[in-house]
Amino acid sequence: MAVAGVLTGAAFGFVVARLARSYFLDVKMPGALPVVLSAFVLLAAAVVASWLPAARAARIDVIQALRSE
Q1: C-alpha angle with apex 54: 51 to 58, nearest 5 degrees?
Q2: How far apart are alpha carbons 43 and 49 in whole angstroms?
Q3: Are the C-beta atoms of 46 and 2 separated by less than 8 Å?
Q4: CA 10 – CA 12 distance, rounded (Å)
Q5: What is the rounded CA–CA span in Å between residue 56 and residue 65?
Q6: What is the pTM of this model?
Q7: pLDDT, tens digit, for every residue of 38-58?
Q8: Side-chain-side CA neighbours of residue 2 (13 Å)
């Protein structure tokens, strides 16, 4: 899901940058390095944000959690 979001955001950003360049002459496309680094940071944050709750949930005893409900 995060990969789909990064790819969609990159495609939309490319289209918006091209559109902005047609209206404003000083707008330049970013290089590949900032785009790749930001995509990597976003994907790493998504992995951490999904891994931490999953690891916490894996430590809980299922029977005990059902009894407390």
Answers
A1: 135
A2: 10
A3: yes
A4: 5
A5: 13
A6: 0.67
A7: 999 999 999 999 999 999 888
A8: 13
Q: List pLDDT tens digits, range 5-49.
A: 999 998 998 898 888 888 888 878 778 898 889 999 999 999 999
Q: Which residue has the tokens 């559109």?
A: 19
CA geometry: angle 2, 36, 7, nearest 5 deg: 35
Is residue 2 within 8 Å of 43, Cβ to Cβ? yes
Q: How far apart are CA 38 and CA 10, in angstroms?
A: 10
Q: Which pair of structure tokens corresponds to residue 13?
A: 């950003």
d(CA 49, CA 42): 10
Q: How many residues does the chain have?
A: 69
Q: Give the distance from CA 50 to its chain's centroid.
A: 11
